[in-house]
């Protein structure tokens, strides 16, 4: 049971990281302003990074 939960957690983390990368890359390439309108928290994250 624990092992299954661990794998699921890993997959969720990987999915979130992948989604974040996909969400962050286009605005970073095109201009960070786009991201501020879509997701302000991610925009702050990108601006801080």
Index terms:
3 helices; elongated; 49 residues; 90% helix
What does this entry look like structurally?
It is a single chain. The mean pLDDT is 74. The longest helix is centred in the first third of the chain and has 29 residues, at 2-30. The protein is mainly alpha-helical. 90% of the residues lie in helices and 0% in strands. The protein is elongated, with a radius of gyration of 14 Å. The chain has three helices and no strands. The protein has one domain (2-48).
Helix percentage range = over 70%
**How many individual helices?**
3
Report the strand count: 0
Which runs of at least 5 residues are low in confidence (pLDDT < 50)? none
Report the order of strands and helices.
Answer: HHH
Strand content: under 5%
Structural class of the secondary elements?
A: mainly alpha
The main pleated sheet reads as: none
